[in-house]
């Protein structure tokens, strides 16, 4: 049975059992502050479990893309070293939202595994929750009783809280679970050790394949448990492990989920995969084929590699694969990108985003490979310098701090540094490395740690967003909670009616104020007359975000009467400019597709009151003509004063029929909001102008690259574009006055010509001066051992010093030249070594040692090197040290 057939059979089985089959949610989460990635099948259904949203159906089944490389659930370090851990994996799941519970879920699981998939019953074991006295949780007797109708009681095992009480994170839905384990060992192995003794002991052939979670509780921030409004079922079966069991393999990597990818790696690398666990070559191949799936799906879902957040995680996974292939497969050129076509062929039928985004995914991975391979080559040169300096001091240990700097700043793998050190009979100062790593972790932890208290409920009421129609409204606080972070203590509040747009879809969240009804002089029935912006009772809304379908606004201090009636008012100026920028991104998207082609798709955006940023797929830099044409098209639409057509609650199928643009990586419901300005039609939840004329004018300020195949436009509109042209007008008048001319282009051209002539004259004078200095300095060399040494302090520019040093190197045999300059109050050290001494003295090592005195750094080759620094006062110490050479 192929993996495609196994997946389809699962979905068909649950469809027959009355389940709605839904597509996988994106692997990257954009609207959940608690998670970066979907790390389990239940992630997309969390709001259903918490009661924030109504499910599409009481029974649902799917296959969900999952990623476990951060936070509590992190399998990255295990990948490649065993047969069954993965970064990206598929979770086959069936769900019940207040419909069936333990009896039916257990029955479905047993029937599917034993009667449909035909797994021998004697190979299966199940676990149930044994209870936990510390939380006053009883043993799951119901699960035990249901299981013993299907399986011998000797195969039902009590499991502790760690293994049999499932929790998604520090807080959220949770409950007891019942795992199903399969014993895939040979009969001979089973005779030696019973399978029951190997459950949850990390045996590669006795593995968990299915977990049935019975959601009964919600874990609160204070650690306590509360009953959920209804009982739910959340199950997850590891697709890769199921394939291993059904295809009679001993490793996930031996199934057809991975064998086509492995075959391609073998073809490209010339290395044969043998499946040996300890073989570094085989570990590398497993790492590559696992990681390419994770990276490809993340990019297809809209997450590009970057230096922060989820993008950093994706870059780290990809670089881990590149590092392994470089070190153990000998792959010095990009090749991972060629695996994308294989992945599309194997999985594109079930995951159409791989088909749609294949070109983008391929180009991004290729560019990342090319860049990181250059980093590795650069790192090899730097590690050589560190090694040479270590050896020059007759030491045997590379400084841990410098090895860490290579890893942290330049991305050079620490393991590779260790391997190179061992080849030179050196070691790495592991204690120093670990200390630097711990400092980094503490810095990261300190900047991100946030303590969130439980909600205090003031009134159980359905909260609503009214900000599409109103920017001011009477309201009250339904709930609040305290949060603590590096900036201090704050409160988050939820309003019964909120006019504040929550951050999302690239648009920043609204700011504003809350005026309590007890404010002196404020008439709640006639709010337009208040005019009391400096009253101490006014509450400032610092930001607004969305969490679990709640619109959450941040304030510094809780009002003295949180239960009062309030008047909420959005910052009108910021909202006006923000929505102008948001509307113009829609017009920009359409214009880019018209000018560059329909391959252009939005890949990210930022929309704030001061500017907009728009990322899009395109594989070359836009030229001036293209930029001008796009700008003209957008401004033409603005001038047409096109009225907004808003379809606030339209079925997604109808929206797509009308021609709406949907973005890959976004999660859409059955009903959506469609924004239309003439021929521009997009699915969007943001706020917008009522007609394009409100935008004013659109001006592109910059076009650049953010990743392979991704371009970025930064632009302004509205008030900011008006300010831009006013400032330009003032600057033109000032320059015209300075040049005493209205023909600015001609006047500037004349100045440039004069400047060029003066520069040439100055350079000629410098060279003449350098020739004179060279002649004078020849007399200043001193005999020192096997060399002639020249050490000088000067106030000359770097170019002149370089010319003199190179001239002296040629003319003075057996020479070492050290020049220290304080030109422009900036310390600079230049070292030259004549060619006949380069085997004995290394200019790069000398300059690096001297640079410590001026708090600087630099380097070069054996014959010539330079270093700049920050400590001008250290020049004398550097001179003294130079004279010792």
TrEMBL record:
Signal peptide: none annotated. Keywords: Aminoacyl-tRNA synthetase, ATP-binding, Coiled coil, Cytoplasm, Ligase, Metal-binding, Nucleotide-binding, Protein biosynthesis, RNA-binding, tRNA-binding, Zinc. Residues 1-727 form the Alanyl-transfer RNA synthetases family profile domain. The keyword Mitochondrion does not apply. Gene3D superfamilies: 3.10.310.40, 3.30.54.20, Bira Bifunctional Protein, Domain 2, Threonyl-trna Synthetase, Chain A, domain 2. Binds 1 zinc ion per subunit. It is found in: Cytoplasm. The keyword Ligase applies. Zn(2+) binds at residues 582, 586, 684, 688. Its EC number is 6.1.1.7. Residues 741-775 form a coiled coil. One of its GO terms (molecular function) is alanine-tRNA ligase activity. It is an enzyme of class 6 (ligase). Its cofactor is Zn(2+). InterPro entries: aa-tRNA-synth_II/BPL/LPL, Ala-tRNA-lgiase_IIc, Ala-tRNA-ligase_IIc_anticod-bd, Ala-tRNA-synth_IIc_core, Ala-tRNA-synth_IIc_N, Ala-tRNA_ligase, Ala_tRNA_ligase_euk/bac, DHHA1_dom. NCBIfam families: alaS. HAMAP family: Ala_tRNA_synth_B (MF_00036_B). Catalyzes the attachment of alanine to tRNA(Ala) in a two-step reaction: alanine is first activated by ATP to form Ala-AMP and then transferred to the acceptor end of tRNA(Ala). Also edits incorrectly charged Ser-tRNA(Ala) and Gly-tRNA(Ala) via its editing domain. This is Alanine--tRNA ligase. The gene is alaS.
């Amino acid at each position: 049975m192929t993996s495609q057939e196994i997946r389809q059979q699962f979905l068909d089985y649950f469809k027959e059992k009355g389940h709605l089959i839904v597509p996988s949610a994106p692997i990257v989460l954009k609207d959940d502050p608690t998670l970066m990635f979907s790390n389990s099948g239940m992630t997309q259904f969390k709001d259903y479990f918490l009661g924030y949203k109504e499910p599409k159906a009481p029974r649902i089944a799917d296959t969900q893309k999952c990623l476990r490389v951060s936070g509590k659930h992190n399998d990255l370090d295990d990948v490649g070293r065993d047969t069954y851990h993965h970064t990206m994996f598929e979770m086959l799941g069936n769900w019940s939202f207040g419909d069936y519970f333990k009896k039916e879920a257990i029955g479905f699981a047993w029937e599917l595994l034993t009667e449909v998939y035909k797994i021998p019953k004697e190979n299966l074991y199940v676990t149930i929750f044994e209870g936990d006295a510390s939380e006053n949780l009883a043993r799951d007797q119901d699960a035990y009783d249901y299981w013993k109708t299907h399986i011998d009681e000797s195969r039902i095992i009590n499991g502790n809280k760690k293994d049999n009480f499932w929790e998604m994170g520090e807080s959220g839905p949770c409950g007891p679970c019942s795992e199903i384990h399969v014993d895939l060992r040979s009969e001979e192995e089973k005779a030696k050790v019973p399978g029951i003794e190997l459950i949850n002991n990390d045996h590669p052939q006795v593995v968990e394949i299915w977990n049935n979670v019975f959601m009964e509780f919600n874990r609160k921030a204070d650690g306590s448990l509360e009953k959920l409004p209804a009982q739910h079922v959340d199950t997850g079966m590891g697709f890769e492990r199921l394939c291993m069991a059904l295809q009679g393999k001993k490793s996930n990597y031996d199934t057809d989920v991975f064998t086509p990818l492995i075959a391609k790696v073998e073809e490209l690398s010339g290395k044969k995969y043998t499946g040996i666990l300890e073989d570094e070559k085989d570990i590398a191949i497993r790492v590559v084929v696992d990681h390419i799936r994770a990276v490809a799906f993340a990019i297809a879902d809209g997450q590009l590699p970057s230096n922060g957040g989820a993008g950093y995680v994706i870059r780290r996974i990809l670089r881990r694969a590149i590092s392994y292939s470089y070190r153990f497969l000998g792959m010095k050129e990009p090749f991972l990108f060629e695996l994308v076509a294989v992945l599309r062929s194997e999985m594109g039928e079930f995951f159409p985003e791989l088909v749609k985004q294949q070109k983008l995914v391929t180009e991004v991975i290729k560019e990342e490979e090319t860049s990181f391979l250059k980093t590795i080559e650069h790192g090899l040169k730097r590690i050589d310098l560190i090694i040479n300096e270590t050896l020059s001091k007759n030491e045997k240990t590379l400084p841990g701090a410098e090895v860490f700097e290579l890893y942290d700043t330049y991305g050079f793998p620490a393991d590779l540094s260790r391997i190179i050190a061992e080849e030179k009979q050196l070691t790495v100062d592991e204690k120093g490395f670990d200390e630097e790593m711990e400092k980094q972790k503490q810095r990261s932890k300190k900047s991100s740690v946030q303590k969130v208290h439980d909600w205090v409920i003031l009134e159980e009421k359905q909260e609503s967003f009214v900000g599409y129609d109103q920017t001011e409204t009477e309201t009250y606080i339904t709930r609040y909670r305290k949060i603590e972070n590096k900036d201090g203590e704050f409160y988050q509040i939820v309003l019964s009616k909120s006019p504040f747009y929550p951050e999302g879809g690239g648009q920043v969240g609204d700011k504003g104020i809350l005026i309590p009804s007890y404010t002196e002089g404020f008439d709640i029935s006639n709010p337009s007359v208040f005019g009391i912006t400096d009253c101490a009772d006014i509450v400032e809304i610092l930001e607004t975000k969305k969490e679990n379908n709640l619109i959450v606004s941040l304030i510094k201090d809780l009002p003295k009467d949180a239960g009062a009636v309030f008047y909420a008012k959005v910052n009108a100026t910021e909202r006006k400019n923000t929505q102008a920028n948001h509307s113009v991104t829609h017009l920009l998207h359409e214009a880019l597709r018209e000018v560059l082609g329909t391959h252009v798709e939005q890949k990210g955006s930022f929309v704030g009151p001061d500017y907009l940023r728009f990322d899009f797929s395109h594989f070359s830099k836009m030229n001036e003509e293209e930029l001008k044409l796009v700008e003209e098209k957008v401004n033409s639409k603005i001038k047409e004063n096109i009225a907004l057509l808003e379809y606030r609650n339209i079925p997604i199928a109808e929206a797509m029929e009308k021609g709406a643009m949907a973005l890959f990586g976004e999660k859409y419901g059955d009903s959506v909001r469609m924004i239309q300005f003439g021929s521009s039609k997009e699915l969007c939840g943001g706020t917008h102008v009522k007609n394009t004329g409100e935008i004013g004018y659109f001006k592109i300020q910059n076009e650049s690259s953010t990743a392979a195949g991704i371009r970025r436009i930064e632009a302004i509109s509205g008030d900011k574009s008006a300010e831009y042209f006013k400032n330009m007008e003032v600057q033109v008048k000032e320059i015209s006055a300075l040049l005493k001319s209205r023909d600015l282009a001609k006047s500037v051209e004349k100045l440039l010509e004069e400047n060029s002539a003066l520069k040439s004259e100055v350079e000629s004078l410098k060279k003449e001066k350098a020739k004179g200095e060279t002649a004078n300095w020849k007399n200043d060399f001193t005999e020192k051992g096997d060399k002639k040494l020249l050490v000088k302090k000067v106030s000359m520019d770097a170019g002149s010093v370089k010319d003199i040093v190179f001239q002296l190197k040629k003319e003075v045999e057996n020479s070492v030249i050290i020049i220290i300059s304080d030109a422009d109050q900036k310390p600079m050290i230049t070292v030259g070594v004549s060619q006949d001494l380069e085997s004995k003295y290394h200019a790069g090592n000398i300059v690096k040692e001297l640079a410590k005195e001026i708090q600087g750094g630099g380097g070069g080759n054996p014959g010539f090197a330079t270093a700049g620094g920050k400590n001008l006062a250290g020049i004398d110490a550097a001179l003294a040290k130079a004279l010792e050479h």
